[in-house]
């Protein structure tokens, strides 16, 4: 399974042309998500999850998309979270079904929701910043986590020159207080878009609201 992030013209038929090009190289499309509309220049950013049959080289879908006029591939990587995009609603459903665990559920689901590699809940309400909860593949933070607190609102973070973090792109949002922060990382990219920061901010606020009803 692979994830393609594309910039395409934001007009009818563009996505169909890309889908046809992918079909010609035997790439099976599992899901498509419009990540962002860029009305200022008439383009959109789309994520497409494809499955490739044995014998098809991973660069074939990239070449196919780049062959479509005015289409640009800005990211291509293996996608380990499965074939489903539209993970926001699934995360919300899980949170509402177990309100007391809403924040833990958001931490666990956020890598799949944002197509990331890991997530960690940092707790700086005490004398030192601790990792309260983390998903698999979360790197060690050491002392660098303290520089991100307090955090008033969701934002991207500058990756510190620290083993395991230097090659990552990061986004974070406060949960319950400005010293309890959810940090999410992608190794190598792509950069988190403004629309993704907004989605994380919304989900974080929703998780806190749901938790308060428990």
TrEMBL record:
Write down what this protein is called: ACT domain-containing protein
ACT domain spans which residues?
3-76
Which parts of the chain are coiled coil? none
Which InterPro entries has this protein been placed in? Answer: ACT-like_dom_sf, ACT_dom
Superkingdom of origin: Bacteria
Q: Which Gene3D superfamilies does the record match to this protein?
A: 3.30.70.260
The record ties this protein, via Pfam families, to:
ACT
Q: Which organism is it from?
A: Kribbella karoonensis
